[in-house]
Write a structure and sequence with these properties.
single chain; 456 residues; mainly alpha; Growth Hormone, Chain: A; two-stranded parallel ribbon; 18 helices; 2% strand
Amino acid sequence: MTEEAGMAPAATLVDVAALIDQQKIGRFQIQVLLLCASAMFVDGFDTQAIGYVAPALSAALGLRPGALGLVFAAGGLGAILGGLVLAPYADRVGRKPIIIGSMLFFAVCTLLISLANTVPQLMWMRFAIGLGLGGVVPNALALTAECVPKKFRVTLVLMTWLGFSFGSALAGPITAHILDAHSWRWVFVFGAILPIAIAPVLIWKLPESLHGLTQRGADERQIAGTLARMNPRLIFPEPVHFINSEKKEKGFPVVLLFREGRARMTLLLWVMFFMNLLALFFLNSWLPTVLHKAGLAQHAAIVIAALLHFGGIAGGLAIAPLCDRFNPYLVLAFAYILSGIFITGIGMAGNKAMWAMAATFCAGFFTFGAQNSANAIAATRYPTAMRSSGIGWALGIGRTGQIVGPLIGGLLLSLHWSTSGILYVIAVPSVVAATAAFLLSSTSWPSTFGSTSEAK
């Protein structure tokens, strides 16, 4: 709003970023967290369901061991491309439309995969599903980070990510229950119904990012209306102009990740994400099959594999406070080392169910728990202009492990490697991730996105 020839009063400037940081956690913030977590839940279920259903699907279609490696990899490639393309686009047009559009797209594709009868059909549909899945995670995390006060940001972003973990964890028992009474196709029908049911609620209740609205110069009334939902006691004089105090950086969002001293942090984050996600997605895709190959019953293998995600939930809740108290990357480095130890422990357990359960839970605690915390930390490292891009590209580069991990598993299974030998190989990336985290620990930068400078 401008003042014309002294006739109109000057607009009152309101810093939206500072105003959000002054608010208490209330109904609005909890609602945003739950809505974003529900989108993440659906993403987690659809991401993991293919791994749990793999043994039954292979038996029904008469596939050889390792044949689904290309299907898993196709889903990973789709998720990578979806994240790399949609995250920068969301930085320009908004988080909400990308979240909802991505969910509806992969809902349709998930319904179609239930009709597949060949490996190529499964590959193409899984690739399309991945495109949609890649658009949800970075934007749900970014939107949560932008709607909550700075002092609670890492914790609440972690809580949003736990929606993904719960979706992945509950996919195990839900899949096992469906397979007891129906064919593998009904698992994907259920997976398609979830996003279709949740999308109308997101359309109705999910707000757009206030940080993004102000940076894009949105209508003042839309911004004021969202702030009124956050705190009905906020009253602004007329005329009012909402601003974002963060430094505005122009250019393609991905290029911005390497400016202002952010290059070293960005590259090391990518290495750390890639290595841990390689191990994580191997376990996601192949652990039920590997446990079944070791001599456990199919139902038991699925239920034990689900413990990865319950361990990850517990690990995220335990590791995040340590990251707040100590150097977060040293904490992550030790977690990655322990994840490698317990991954090898799964291989050593063989067909002993109790030992396999304990090792699987602990592997999930450190592998998935560390990733949960790493996602929350990454969501606070970049300014608004590149936040979805920062998270999306870290996850996108990391999710190349979603291709490499399943392909390694498929290759080793086709070569008839032992269960222990396969898992010993998959423990190696954890060591590399720990090395990247140690290197990150020696770099100092602001712990929240209020500043745009990396190094001090």
